[in-house]
């Protein structure tokens, strides 16, 4: 999932440490959900561009 982090953060999920830097980045869904629920991150909507072939 693509998220926007306002500041760097660390969290432990199921015994694993995850360090996330500030900015927009792709991180595992379970980590993103925890950070979003904690109010530390916002989900970024991806613009899906379709290439039309002739």
Draw up the topology in text.
Blueprint: E1 2-5, E2 9-13, E3 16-20, E4 23-26, H1 29-37, E5 41-43
Brief overview, please?
The chain has one helix at residues 29-37, and strands spanning 2-5, 9-13, 16-20, 23-26, 41-43. The chain has 54 residues and is of the alpha+beta class.
Oligomer: single chain
Mean pLDDT: 86
What order do the strands of the largest sheet run in, or round the barrel if closed? Answer: 4-1-5
Strand content: 35-45%
Element string (H = helix, E = strand): EEEEHE
**What does the overall shape look like?**
globular
Largest sheet properties: 3 strands, antiparallel
Structure summary, number of beta strands: 5
What is the number of helical segments per DSSP (H or I, 4+ residues)? 1
Q: Which class of secondary structure composition applies to the elements?
A: alpha+beta
Rg, Å, rounded: 14 Å
Distance between the termini: 32 Å
Identify low-pLDDT runs. Answer: none
Helix content: 10-25%
């Amino acid at each position: 999932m693509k998220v926007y982090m306002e500041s760097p953060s660390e969290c432990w999920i199921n015994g694993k440490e995850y360090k996330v830097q500030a900015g927009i980045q792709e991180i595992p869904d379970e980590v993103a959900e925890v950070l979003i629920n904690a109010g530390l991150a916002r989900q970024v909507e991806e613009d899906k561009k379709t290439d039309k072939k002739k």
